[in-house]
Amino acid sequence: MKKHIGNILKILFPIALGGGILWWTYRDFDFSVLNKALLAQMSIGWLFFSLIFEVLSHVFRGLRWKQVLEPLGERPRTSTCINAIFFSYAISLIIPRSGEVARCGVLKRYDGVSFTKSLGTVVTERVVDMMFVASIVLMVVALQFDVFQAFFMENGHPMDEPALSTTSTNFIPWLIGGLVVCIAGYFLFRRLALANKMKDFLHNIWEGICSIRQVKNIPLFLFYSVAIWGCYIMQFYLTFFAFPFTEDLGFKAGLAVFMTTSLAVLVPTPNGAGPWHYVVISTLTLIYGVNEPDAGVFALIVHGMQTLALILLGVYSMLALRKRNAITTPNNI
């Protein structure tokens, strides 16, 4: 009974958390503005174009995963790796972060890949991804230093002075940002604590983590990694051209807003719903001068399109995997 309650809470808590942040973010939003944007202002062609890069990012991730598994003696089919990635992002819409485990299960079921070894390579991927996120943060600070400096100066906080103040009008955004980091850290700690109870499990995971040192073609691995994050950035930046109020902001602004979304998705909500919207709206309005209704429209439509694409890719992956399994498995008569 206790286990069932825990499983239910794993599903309900992220949904409730994301829903609560969404409600707070859009509590005063006029949804008639959304209809106007859908009917007249939005250029949907740019949104569909951006989704091409969403698909490519997952394809490159699947190719990189296959490469990292090879030094462990595991050679899954390329199509299985890519479909496992598609499926993982779709299932994470229901239970955040569950996709990391689910994609390893897909490889185990369809290509017989060791579950624990593949899970170890997922940990390796996360380390590499965090390095790219850190690099993007540093790049944004360097490229947009004058913009951020002007913002903090206007709000009474030069960048060489402490930014947190209980008297600041921006205390709530800072507080929410701190909560985001704390919640993400809590869930990461829980995972690591649970894993520490299983010696063999940890041993295989460690093998997966170390597999990066044995990758035969490091330049190709780096290419896949850069391609993954390049596609993420292009996917987001191209959506700027879909709206008249963001099309002239430029690439640097797109990179800065993308950076905030990369940090927001650390909060365990379905596809970052809630925190993603909040940081996009806050960055567009407070730093780049987009009015709040327009920023709200941008966040709703862009996130909605990206989420719909993940659902469709998830459905495609399940159909593709089942079809191939039906072909390769003899009928029992």
Outline of the structure:
This protein has 13 helices and no strands.
Structural features, described:
The chain is mostly helical and 333 residues long. The chain has helices at 2-25, 32-41, 44-69, 78-91, 99-111, 115-143, 145-154, 171-195, 199-210, 218-238, 251-264, 275-286, 292-328. The chain has one domain. It is globular and about 55 Å long.
Question: What's the topology here?
Answer:
Blueprint: H1 2-25, H2 32-41, H3 44-69, H4 78-91, H5 99-111, H6 115-143, H7 145-154, H8 171-195, H9 199-210, H10 218-238, H11 251-264, H12 275-286, H13 292-328
Mean pLDDT over the residues: 80
Give the helix/strand class: mainly alpha
Fraction in helix: over 70%
Percent in strands: under 5%
- Given as residue ranges, the uncertain stretches (5+ residues, pLDDT < 50) are 156-171, 193-197
Number of E-state strands: 0
Main sheet summary: none
Task: Name the helix and strand elements from N-terminus to C-terminus, one letter apiece.
Answer: HHHHHHHHHHHHH
Overall tally of domains = 1
Number of helices: 13
First CA to last CA: what distance? 40 Å
Radius of gyration: 21 Å
What form results from the Cα inertia axes?
globular
